[in-house]
Amino acid sequence: MTTKTTDLKPLSAIVKPEERELALKLEEHAAIQAELADRELKAEHLRAELGAFERQYLHHVGSLYAELDELKAQIAAQKSAANPSDATAKAAADDARARAEETKATAGEKSDVAPRSFEATPEMKRLYREVAKRIHPDLASESDDRSRREVLMAEVNDAYESGDEAKLTKILTGYEHSPESVKGDGAGADLVRVIRRISQARARVVEIDAETEELLRSDLYRLKSHLDEAKALGRDVLNEMAGKVADQITRAKLQLEKMPAAR
């Protein structure tokens, strides 16, 4: 008896070309998603650090500068009032008042509670990466989905800056179980979507790099770096600055007290 051998086609002959391409693109998409999430985390971490530092600076020093500039404005106004025909004194008083108002607006109201430094646990960073990989707006393929992701990502950033790990977990879990997260059927359609998502993610990586470079070039970052270096050497530059401004305030108050009252 002759045994008939059944010819088996290789897997590559069975799988459709678009399915093979889709598999490759899905791997590429996963890689760019991970890269994007990591870049997004670094940029958001830098923004959070600078935001916390700015609040600390305004709390410890900014409010003192506002008080000092207000005293200087009062001194300039007294000098102008004592010499009403002196146009230079009048201009100096106007400039001092404008500077005082600007400093006051920048410093805002001083809180009784000192702002805390920004810190993030390794778990917080891991959660942020996972959330960014799944729901970042630039990974959306439709306008409605993008709008929803933008709202969620804003909530994610707020939760990260406030150190709310539970909220990050809740946002991620809620999105993964939502109907909008379900992908459509068909290798061809999926291939088009994943190609567009890859393109969007790469564009976002470029944008994040540009945003990060801008933050690193900012005056606020340079000031923070200077203070961090000093802190590593055992100096508390914020308190040193506050002390110097406080001394200037004392001298300005004495000067104002000695000036004759305007008639």
Keywords, please?
single chain; 263 residues; mainly alpha; 9 helices
Question: How does this model look, in words?
Answer:
The chain is an all-alpha fold and 263 residues long. It has a domain at 17-60 and 120-235. The protein is built from 9 helices and no strands. The chain has helices at residues 11-14, 17-82, 87-107, 122-135, 143-161, 165-176, 187-216, 219-232, 237-258. Helix 2 runs parallel beside helix 7 (187-216) and helix 5 runs antiparallel to helix 6 (165-176). The termini are far apart.
| Computed Rg | 30 Å
Question: Which stretches of 5+ consecutive residues score pLDDT under 50?
Answer: none
Give the integer mean of the pLDDT values.
Answer: 82
> Quick one: how many beta strands?
0
Following the backbone from N to C, one meets helices and strands in this order, namely HHHHHHHHH
Assembly status: single chain
Largest sheet: none
Number of helical segments with 4 or more residues: 9
- Beta percentage is under 5%
Shape: elongated
Q: How many angstroms does the end-to-end distance come to?
A: 129 Å
Q: Helix/strand-derived class?
A: mainly alpha
**What helical percentage do the residues reach?**
over 70%
